[in-house]
């Protein structure tokens, strides 16, 4: 960023005052914190999709019908039930809509979602790393400016 023109969203850091650099640094800190939070949420969602695949493989596809099991109503509340079918499952396709799919279709659905999230996670990692690098540049320029002003004042 340093030495770049102000076109295209780039700023010459050397031309900014220490106060302006502090404001840019705070904005970048906030962005990095938000992106890091989003990264954690994406990783959590990807893990849930992988858990769904595991549940299909271990709990449905290789089981027998009428097998007793616990059905999750919430993350901490389960009720007893029986496995009605080992061929089909209900899949949450988003916003509270459920679709009946074969176990093979359900696994493909969750694998696709997991792959999509993995791609988004990698893209987000790249963005976070870029913002963190910009943050380090700003901190270095701020240090240089403070040292220069201290030496000029001494």
UniProtKB/TrEMBL annotation:
Q: Which residues form a coiled coil?
A: 18-45
Write down the InterPro entries for this protein, in alphabetical order: PFD_alpha_archaea (IPR011599), Prefoldin (IPR009053), Prefoldin_subunit_alpha (IPR004127)
Q: Which Pfam families match?
A: Prefoldin
Does Amino-acid biosynthesis show up as a keyword for this record?
A: no
Listed A to Z, the keywords are: Coiled coil
Q: Which family does it belong to?
A: Belongs to the prefoldin subunit alpha family.
This protein's name: Prefoldin subunit 5
Q: Which organism is it from?
A: Neodothiora populina
**Could you read off the lineage of the organism from its UniProt record?**
Eukaryota, Fungi, Dikarya, Ascomycota, Pezizomycotina
